[in-house]
Amino acid sequence: MAVFQGKGSEHDFSIFKRGKIKLHEMLILLADSGFQGIEDLHQACWIPHKKSKNKPLSNEQKRINKALSSVRVCVEHAIRRAAKRFKIFSTRYRNKRKRHGLRMSLLCGIYNFDIS
Predict the structure, then answer these.
(1) Buried b (16+ CB within 10 A) or exposed e, 82-113
(2) What contacts 110, CB < 8 A, 6 or more positions away?
(3) Residues 62, 45, 47, CA angle at the centre, nearest 5°?
(4) How far is CA 37 from CA 13, 104, 107, 108, in A?
(5) Residue 25: CB partners within 8 Å, gap ≥ 6?
(6) Which of 47, 49, 36, 50 is nearest to 71 (CA)?
(7) Which end of the chain is more exposed for a tag (fewer CB within 10 A), N or C?
(8) Are 88 and 107 in contact (CB under 8 A)?
(9) Which tens digit of pLDDT belongs to each residue from 79-112?
């Protein structure tokens, strides 16, 4: 598992693009509106619609945005609970880099076992 790091002020999408991660074509990617343009890198992605000054959102677009946010909030809450329980997620990782992916996978497995 590759670990990509960026400066504190670097956006996640910039780190994602620089990493050149190959995602399986059947994988559906849920992203927030900060990832505009990810459609060029991965076809199966769901991103909320953004309104502009001169073009408000239609009722259908609002409905889609609400459905996406209701799915994404469940994921965000799970990440928050795991980060609160295991401080390794929310602090600086100070161990060997090649073991980072293994440790994160183990902690996520423990968390999934605990909530099931």
Answers:
(1) beeebebbeeeeeeeeeeeeeebeeeeeebee
(2) none
(3) 30
(4) 9, 28, 32, 29
(5) 43, 44
(6) 47
(7) C
(8) yes
(9) 888 888 887 777 777 777 788 788 888 888 888 8
Q: Which whole-number Å values give the CA distances from 76 to 31, 32, 57, 71, 82, in the listed order?
A: 11, 11, 25, 9, 10
Could you tell me the CA-to-CA distances from 79 to 5, 76, 103 in Å, in that order?
19, 5, 15
User: Which structure tokens are listed for 55?
Assistant: 């073009």
Q: What is the DSSP secondary-structure string of 44-109?
A: SEE------SS-PPPHHHHHHHHHHHHHHHHHHHHHHHHHHH-GGGTS---S-GGGHHHHHHHHHH
What are phi and psi for residue 104, nearest 5 degrees?
A: -65, -40
Please count the residues of the chain.
116
